[in-house]
Design brief:
Layout: H1 3-36, H2 38-44, H3 63-73, E1 78-83, E2 91-97, E3 107-112, E4 118-121, H4 128-137, H5 142-171, H6 185-199, H7 201-215, H8 217-233, H9 248-258, E5 263-268, E6 279-285, E7 295-301, E8 307-310, H10 315-328, H11 333-373
Antiparallel strand pairs: 1-2, 1-5, 2-3, 3-4, 5-6, 6-7, 7-8
Protein name: PepSY domain-containing protein
Organism: Methylomonas fluvii
InterPro entries: PepSY-ass_TM
């Protein structure tokens, strides 16, 4: 195949993969901008609160008292999870539902982990950030929406590969990063599109790949739940159920003793789909930027507070857990978030310039085709 024919093939791949996914990628970039600063925006809008400043207070609240307070605020409901906060150890949250295994959340309460003080009732399934997240994650269409966005992410990756090949063709005789000012405006837009695209290539590829991984989070967790977690809890199925109220504190303490260098991410209560009929399952996280993104499940008997099992997550689940912070840039504090903001804006410029180039090419070709037909 000649060089010209090869160029046409790569050009066709780049053009059509880009055109198909551009609208979706623009939506993801625009909704991703506020999600980079989701925590800061929720704090500013009053939908969440920061932990009260008590720098010298090293106490730990009574977990069972917090659970009892949450249940008193929602009589008839059941606690599903006790949730920790990797970035703010002074906060604990309690998630409630109509039953322990219900997929619907009835309340999410925030507490001071040092003295048990009730701080805030987190609004559920509403607000600006929730709207942005649902559009970004599944287009309000559940798993089919997530898989559609995943397919668009794969097209983006194909567009990046083909665009890199085309950049070599376009700039073979020019210095790297050249933007030719002589000539038509379309030529300048083409050089600018190429420059911004190649400058953000690695970031776009990383965000695209981690985004694709995140779109299959539900089936990945479901597979782990149906295999590894089911195997951990299999010996206890069929046992008489035990209510977790009044037993959570001892269970959490036992889990932390079994993994002294870890902290609580969340703990599922007995009867929950992530726990046994009379067993808590505490999901613990490490204390470094990397290990804080990974989880280790620990099974604890609710009646005796005995640790029954502890197991590492499989590699495919670890890959999923690591992909989320990489995707949103929320593992390196505010400076990294600001960098993600800048790169996201550049990605929007790449997408918009690509659409402009396609429209400009059509405007140029239509008179030529009409002239040839005449």
């Amino acid at each position: 195949m000649s060089a010209r024919s090869t160029f046409k093939v790569w050009y066709g791949v780049h053009q059509w993969t880009s055109l198909v996914c551009t609208l979706f990628m623009l939506l993801l970039c625009l909704t991703g901008l506020p999600l980079i600063f989701a925590e800061e925006i929720d704090l500013a809008l009053g939908r969440n609160i920061a932990a009260p400043q008590r720098p010298d207070d090293q106490r730990q609240a009574d977990v069972d008292a917090i659970v009892a307070d949450a249940l008193a605020r929602r009589p008839g409901d059941t606690v599903q999870f006790l949730v920790g906060d990797a970035e703010e150890p002074a906060l604990w949250s309690v998630r409630l539902g109509k039953t322990a295994a219900s997929s619907d959340v009835s309340a999410f309460y925030l507490y001071d982990a040092r003295n048990g003080e009730f701080l805030h009732a987190v609004p559920l399934d509403s607000g600006f950030i929730n709207l942005m997240f649902r559009l970004h994650y599944d287009l309000f269409a559940g798993l089919p929406g997530s898989l559609l966005l995943g397919a668009m992410g794969l097209l983006l990756l194909a567009s990046l590969v083909s665009g890199t090949v085309l950049y070599h063709y376009h700039m073979a005789k020019l210095p790297f990063g050249s933007v030719r000012r002589a000539g038509s405006s379309r030529l300048r837009w083409l050089d600018l599109h190429n420059l911004l695209g190649i400058a953000t290539l690695v970031w776009l590829a990383m965000v695209g790949l981690t985004g694709v991984v995140n779109t299959v989070a539900e089936p990945i967790f479901q597979r782990w739940q149906d295999t590894e977690l089911a195997a951990m809890l299999a010996p206890y199925q069929g046992q008489a159920p035990v209510n977790g109220q009044g037993r959570a504190g001892a269970a959490l303490a036992a889990a932390l003793r079994a993994a002294p260098d870890m902290a609580l991410s969340f703990m599922a209560f007995p009867g929950n789909e992530f726990a046994g009929p009379r067993q808590f399952v505490a999901f613990l996280q490490g204390n470094t930027p990397l290990t804080s993104q990974l989880l280790t499940p620990v099974v604890i008997d609710a009646a005796t507070s005995e640790v029954l099992a502890k197991r590492e997550l499989p590699a495919y689940v670890k890959a999923l857990l690591l992909s989320k912070p990489l995707h949103f840039g929320n593992y390196g504090g505010l400076p990294l978030k600001c960098l993600w903001l800048v790169l996201d804006l550049i990605a929007i410029a790449v997408l918009v310039s690509g659409v402009y180039l396609w429209l400009a090419l059509r405007r140029w070709r239509l008179p030529a085709v009409a002239g040839a037909a005449a």
